[in-house]
Amino acid sequence: MKNSMFLKKVKMKLYQLKSNVLTISNGHHTFALTSLRADVFILNKMSYIPIGTILNERFVMERHLGAWYGESCYHGKDSQDDKQIVLKAFVPADPRIQAYVDFFKECSGMQGIPTFIAHFSTDDSEFIAHEFNGVVLRGILNARMFHISLENTIRLGYRLFRILHAIHLKGYVHKNIQPLSIVCDVGPDEELVVNLSYFGHAARIDELPSNNRIILGPHHSLHVSRGGAYSRIDDYISVVLVMLSCQTINPFDFNTNWHLTHVQKKENFHANPYAVLTPETMWLGDLYLQLEEMRSDRLSHLQVMAALRRAVPGFDPQTAITYRNAADSVYHLID
């Protein structure tokens, strides 16, 4: 959808565009979107690729998933080995391209990380191709009205922390953990597998600030939202906020508390996370504050995993995620 159509649809007008920050207003509130390329909000320069097109002599385009912030995404098939893939198209020189390439050099094929397949160019776009199976967590949560059982929420978080710990040991931070970057799929043993699928902002832990700026969202920490340097703790806090979303607790959602800015919502939660929690999720408030306290010391992965094991007495978070297939959709509905 072209930017002008988008702005019309949400009844907002272009307010200001400068210094790589797009600011839009609906007459009552102003929102600043920090962009890694200011022009991607004005015009998607990449051409739409017809379904059935074969790219790089092997990748068959099957479905256009959409375009966000200058990235156009397609589902397809690798004709060489008949595997399902995702192709992500960017305008040339987009810094996310190199982020993908560098990350996959170190982490491709690790548990929870898809296998990198190719990086290639066409006339007006550069593509990243990697394996893709399953459905995004956001779709599952939508189908479940943003609520899954506490036990499955803990199982999901346990698996995400384990994936991130492995990434961190490789020297990388993910920087964009949210329901749209998490994928669930049924494995060979019929267990539900949790994977990550987006790495456009992944970077080395010690990397200096670059022009590959993060699009701030509900699942980023207060520290990052205020412009602080990203660390492993911020990845972990994002998982805590995803777990809250799985329990229908979304205090940072764009449609919640419109009178507050993104940072103000984060500040309110940080000051008293328990105010929005249920009795069953108070321990997630404890975990959030524990992670924030670790900023002054160091992240302890073992303490985080121990907190998940203590959340429900006698419960093992390593047990299988329970789910059912919806007869009328492709989603694996987590119980």
From TrEMBL:
<dbReference type="InterPro" id="IPR000719">
    <property type="entry name" value="Prot_kinase_dom"/>
</dbReference>
<feature type="domain" description="Protein kinase">
    <location>
        <begin position="59"/>
        <end position="335"/>
    </location>
</feature>
<dbReference type="InterPro" id="IPR011009">
    <property type="entry name" value="Kinase-like_dom_sf"/>
</dbReference>
<dbReference type="GO" id="GO:0004672">
    <property type="term" value="F:protein kinase activity"/>
</dbReference>
<dbReference type="GO" id="GO:0005524">
    <property type="term" value="F:ATP binding"/>
</dbReference>
<protein>
    <recommendedName>
        <fullName>Protein kinase domain-containing protein</fullName>
    </recommendedName>
</protein>
